[in-house]
Write a structure and sequence with these properties.
GO terms for molecular function: glycosyltransferase activity. This protein has 412 residues and is an alpha/beta fold. The chain is 42% helix and 15% strand.
């Protein structure tokens, strides 16, 4: 049995089912998982597996570290008085500046020790995003020095974060961590470009539970509305502006449309205004946040799925999008973009269509083609389902993750 510490940004979080799938997969295979999170997630809408596996009982909170050193010191005194009896030697050791240098004198190591004060050793410390590797290095140093440090890269952490902080931001991480798991070849190439040792890199895709997404052939019945769907946060990199503009371009020639957009985010007001300006209020509907079952119901009721991802102005990019995998698993013909790791999921003209980023005209052209040729919906849908089952099946990928852990754990 492996004992694994997951370090995450938020938990629980509906939009990060890829992390939840790994946790439950490890538990089902008899391994132990503890979850360390920087911030509590949204407890109003949680995935059923959070309750099924009692995951909140396995969740611990990484204490916020004040930027001001005086405030940091005062907070540390309070934390020490509360937690000292849990692990006195570990907490005092975390303050040893002679041994740990700046990590100790800055009190950052102490805050990491507080998080795992009364926990035993771990075999694996897995940072679920590259941005968490800095916490991970501290956590391992004081809580699990024999553990292997594994770091996943998933999107923002290997795109926008690099643009904001420079190409050298992960230099120390590349030295100290034992293994890096980019979730697509596109991000592997970026890690190599940044100077990461190729021997430490293993591409590990994020998977979905194909059994939860029943494949359903798509047909168009006469006089039936054609239902189009997009699911994703209302933020720039999702490119939803361009799919809305695409629908506006074809609505006169294809008036019997309905376009449902599931998600919330900072661009909601802007997108509402765009819908109004393009006179699409009766066609395009922003449905807000939905839980997992509600999302599946939207997908099952749809005919075509669009994932118009773009590279945001701040550099943020996507890997193969999980909800795109879900749409393909259900059997929807999909339209997406030549963006990030998406071409590793969607084979153009085979399991879907790919168009250039920010090209509403190209999206409109593919939409018109699909609407005019419903006889190909099932051909594309079947190819999409086959590809997801072959490369993105959660069960296979969770088996692969255990193998990865065992291999890295056995290395000297």
């Amino acid at each position: 049995m492996l004992k694994v510490a997951f370090i995450v940004n938020h938990f629980p979080l509906l939009s990060e089912t890829f992390i939840l799938n790994q946790i439950t997969g490890l538990l089902e295979r008899g391994h132990q998982v503890d979850i360390y999170t920087c911030t509590p997630g949204d407890l109003n809408k949680v995935h059923p597996d959070v309750e099924k596996y009692c995951l909140l009982e396995r969740t611990y909170y990484l204490p916020e570290i004040p930027q001001n050193f005086l405030k940091r010191s005062l907070k540390a005194i309070g934390l020490l008085s509360i937690n000292f009896t849990k692990a006195p030697r570990k907490l005092l050791r975390s303050l040893n500046g002679f041994k740990y240098g700046k990590s100790a004198t800055s009190l950052r190591l102490f805050y990491a020790a507080i998080a795992g004060a009364d926990k035993g050793a771990y075999d694996i410390v897995h940072c679920q995003f590259g941005t968490l590797s800095f916490w991970g290095m501290l956590f391992r140093t004081i809580n699990a020095p024999q553990a292997k440090l594994v770091v996943s890269f998933r999107g923002y952490d290997i795109s926008q974060f690099i643009q904001e902080h420079g190409d050298r931001i992960y230099d120390r991480t590349f030295v100290e961590a034992d293994l890096f798991l980019p979730n697509c070849d596109f991000f592997k190439r970026r890690l190599l470009k940044l100077g990461c040792n190729e021997k430490k890199i293993c591409v590990h895709y994020s998977g979905i539970d194909c059994d939860r997404f029943q494949y359903t052939p798509r047909y168009r019945h006469s006089h039936q509305k054609i239902c189009i769907a997009t699911i994703g946060r209302l933020v720039e990199k999702k490119g939803i502006e361009y799919s809305i503009r695409a629908v506006a371009k074809i609505v006169k020639s294809c008036p019997n449309l309905e376009y449902k957009i599931v998600g919330c985010g900072s661009l909601q007001t802007e997108l509402e205004q765009l819908i109004q300006e393009l006179e699409l209020n009766n066609i395009v509907h922003l449905l807000g946040k939905k839980n997992r079952q509600e999302i599946i119901e939207v997908l099952q009721a749809s005919h075509i799925f669009i994932a118009p991802s773009i590279t945001a102005r701040d550099g943020n990019q996507d890997a193969p999008v999980n909800v795109l995998k879900e749409a393909m698993a259900i059997g929807l013909p999909v339209i997406s973009t030549y963006h990030g790791g998406i071409p590793e999921l969607v084979e153009d003209c085979v399991s879907g269509f790919l168009v250039p980023e920010r090209d509403a005209e190209a999206i409109a052209s593919k939409l018109q083609y699909l609407i005019a040729h419903p006889e190909i919906w099932n051909i594309i849908g079947a190819a999409g389902r086959e590809r997801v089952e072959k490369y993105f099946n959660m069960q296979n990928l969770n088996d692969e993750l255990v193998d990865i852990y065992q291999k890295v754990s056995s290395e000297e």
